């Protein structure tokens, strides 16, 4: 285990007078890591992932980084309206996606959409959500970067912070009552921990011991509010103590460490052990969204410091260290991903808007008479019942 520096990796408080606790002694105050600076893995914490899983994780992390880069460019060109990238935070969603089983559920926040791709959601449908066109399974009804898909059990979320956490805990409670083995994972940012929903969710999860994993991606900035002004607690993970929820603090830029921590938490939940709260310490290297200018509230020096801890660079260093990746393979991978993403964008952007009659889909299990009349009118047919007034109402 490695001791950690609260100043460097947690909230920007003054350094404590006593040595920081190790993750083994206080997992909600320590910082669990696997990857070392030279690319090797600490054998005491290494989850022992196979070469196949490591290479899959790298491919998925590279893919979402390239997608984000393209989407931000498209937004600047006026071809889509909004984008929220997860640059610098790829390790947590990718590791989570690799851990989960088919029947598990995900309640994301802004920077976890890529879990869908890891779990098999089609790339074209994913990109179509940015455009909100006929290829979008959400039928253009949701804000871009708010992806969801029933095919992979990923639930839509709201820009109102932390509202998804009570939903995640409620879904986990339902799973427990039904005695199925599904686990629910809910995400929140460091800013969302100041919302009542966060506390309600942790309290309910702790009391009813539901099979859920709640993950806080502490990226140090709630838009322009730094973590030091968000809480006086030494870590966000320690907040779980008040609710009786076991909590762990992990290096969120170390995909092996995140895989281990989330994997252990999911296994614990699935076996009936109850909830876990995880703080993944990471950093948002880009803007909060395409509507944000981070140069107004943080220094380039800070960004440059965290860029040296880029999760993709760290995993690449590990793969090279183990002889699993070389320069030629890296180039071929990037070329292949760029071609895949480019082809998907070209095909999706050529699609038209959602059909007008889809306005009436997914609203009621059985369409009521007044909407049936309106749908018929949209389709250019006479209202059912043979008269403008409808049939017998």
TrEMBL record:
| Start-end of Basic and acidic residues biased regions | 1-12
Q: Which reaction does it catalyse?
A: N(6)-[(R)-lipoyl]-L-lysyl-[protein] + 3-methyl-2-oxobutanoate + H(+) = N(6)-[(R)-S(8)-2-methylpropanoyldihydrolipoyl]-L-lysyl-[protein] + CO2
Q: GO molecular function of the protein, one example? A: branched-chain 2-oxo acid dehydrogenase activity
Q: Which portions of the sequence form the region Disordered?
A: 1-24
- Report the domain of life of the source organism: Bacteria
Query: What segments bear the compositional bias annotation Low complexity?
Result: 13-24
The answer to keyword ATP-binding applying to this record is: no
Cofactor(s) the record lists: thiamine diphosphate
One Pfam entry for this protein is E1_dh
Q: Which InterPro entries match?
A: Alpha-ketoacid_DH_E1_comp, DH_E1, THDP-binding
- Cite the entry's keywords alphabetically: Oxidoreductase, Thiamine pyrophosphate
- What Enzyme Commission number(s) does the record list for this chain? 1.2.4.4
Where the record annotates domain Dehydrogenase E1 component, the positions are 59-352
The similarity annotation says: Belongs to the BCKDHA family.
Put simply, this protein is called: 2-oxoisovalerate dehydrogenase subunit alpha
């Amino acid at each position: 285990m490695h001791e950690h520096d609260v100043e460097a990796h947690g909230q920007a408080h003054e350094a404590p007078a006593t040595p920081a606790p190790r993750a083994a002694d206080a997992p909600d105050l320590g910082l669990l890591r696997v990857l070392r600076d030279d690319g090797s893995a600490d054998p005491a914490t290494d989850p022992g992932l196979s070469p196949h899983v490591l290479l899959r994780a790298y491919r998925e992390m590279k893919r979402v980084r390239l997608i984000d880069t393209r989407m931000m460019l498209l937004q600047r060109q006026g071809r889509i309206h909004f984008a929220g990238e997860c640059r610098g935070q790829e390790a947590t969603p990718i590791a989570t996606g690799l851990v989960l089983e088919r029947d598990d559920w995900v309640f994301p926040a802004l920077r976890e959409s890529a879990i869908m791709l890891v779990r098999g959601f089609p790339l074209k449908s994913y990109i179509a959500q940015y455009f909100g066109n006929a290829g979008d399974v959400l039928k253009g009804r949701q804000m871009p970067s708010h992806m969801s898909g029933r095919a992979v059990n990923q639930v839509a979320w709201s820009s109102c912070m932390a509202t998804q956490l009570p939903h995640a805990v409620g879904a986990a409670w339902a799973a427990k009552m039904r005695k199925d083995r599904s686990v629910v994972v809910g995400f929140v940012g460091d800013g969302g921990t100041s919302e009542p929903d966060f506390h309600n969710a942790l309290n309910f999860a702790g009391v009813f011991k539901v099979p859920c994993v709640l993950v806080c991606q502490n990226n140090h900035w709630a838009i322009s509010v730094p973590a030091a002004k968000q809480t006086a607690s030494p870590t966000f993970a320690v907040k779980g103590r008040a609710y009786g929820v076991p909590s762990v603090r992990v290096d969120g830029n170390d995909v092996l460490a995140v895989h281990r921590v989330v994997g252990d938490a999911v296994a614990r939940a699935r076996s009936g052990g109850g909830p876990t709260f995880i703080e993944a310490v990471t950093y948002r290297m880009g803007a909060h969204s395409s509507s944000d200018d981070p140069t107004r509230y943080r220094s380039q020096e800070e960004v440059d410091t965290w860029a040296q801890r880029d999760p993709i660079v760290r995993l690449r260093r590990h793969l090279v260290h183990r002889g699993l990746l070389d320069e030629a393979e890296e180039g071929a991978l990037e070329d292949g991903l760029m071609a895949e993403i480019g082809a998907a964008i070209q095909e999706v952007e050529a699609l038209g808007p959602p059909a007008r009659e889809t306005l009436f889909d997914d609203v009621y299990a059985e369409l009521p008479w007044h909407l049936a009349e309106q749908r018929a009118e949209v389709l250019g047919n006479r209202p059912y019942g043979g008269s403008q007034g409808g049939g017998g109402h």
